[in-house]
Structures are given as structure tokens and as C-alpha cells.
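The authors assume throughout that readers already know how a fold can be written as C-alpha cells. A single example would do more here than another paragraph of explanation. An entry of this sort, consisting of the sequence and the corresponding C-alpha cells, reads as follows:
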Amino acid sequence: MFRIQKLMIEEYEEIYEPIIVENPFTQVTEDGIGLRQFHIGLTRSKLLFGCDDFDSIDLADFHGQGGKDPEIETFELVSMLPLEFLKLNFFRKQQRDLMRIVVCGDEARPMFFEFGGHLYKRLFWNTWRERVSTIRLSQPNLFHINASSPFSSTDVHVEDEICQALIHSNSMYSYGDGSRSLCANSI
């Protein structure tokens, strides 16, 4: 895994940015018909799209391409999209985990990507949602990206969760009068 990360380090050192999360995806139509397979990586500022291009490799001399990592031997970076120009939504439809990407200004043509892989698909879906929410909260200019479903009002947004932080809890023992009594509200 982390093919985009490897490719960025190997061939795109001047624009390298650490990949936060990366997964295989299948671009699908709104009806779920597969179009193309991608590896999509998320950084703090952009989405990176990569895919295998077997046409660029001479299959007669496929093995031993000058010591290049076999995982990225046929792998190419096809697109980089800045997050500031994207709207992201994550949702489930008919037992499928999907990511919807809309380029700002081109709302009529959304792109749908189904999370790939059989094992850990749900874990990666949740990881992507969590990472996108974290980026959204840490960078105010990305308020429009969203880790929730555009179709459901039951999703919990990070900013909507009620959190309680206990910074200085009351002491378990009372020191004022020397008596030892448990505080009722200590954790």
C-alpha cells in the first residue's frame, strides 16, 4: 500500500507532501457501474490520483526495470486536485461505501468513488471521514469539505459532538480540614 507516497518520494520530490491516508478506489457511475480504478491519496492540501498504466511498459522486459520498486513500476500520478476547490462527501448506498467528489463550479458533474479492497473497507471508510474532518477543523479555509453524508441527517459531525474535558479534577481527598472524604464528582 501507500503507492502514491512511494511514487511522490521517488519521482516528485520537489512537490512532495506527506500522505495522510491512501486507498484503492473504483470510479463508478451514480448507478454503481465501474469506470476506472484509482489509488487516491489525501494530504493536508490536496487529493492525489494515481493508477497503473501497463501500456507504457514493454511487457517483454517487464521484470527488472533498473531497480525500480515493483509496486510503482507501472504506477503513474494522473491528477492533483487542491482541497480548496473540492467538496467531499462520504456515504453508504446499497451496502457500498462511497466518496462523492464535486469540483467547485462544476456541481452538475459529481464523481463517485467506491472504496476498494475486501478486507478493512469499513475501517478505511471511517479513517477517511476522520482525516477529512480533522483537516476541515484545522484549516478554516476548507470549511466546505465535509466528512458526512449528503443524504442523511443522522451523521454526527465532529463540530456537533458534545465533548467534556476534565482539566483539573477535584482531589480524591479533601486537604482543607484534614479529613479524608471522597469527592462526589471525581472520575
User: Anything to note?
Assistant: Strands lie at 21-28, 34-42, 46-52, 75-82, 86-93, 96-103, 111-115.
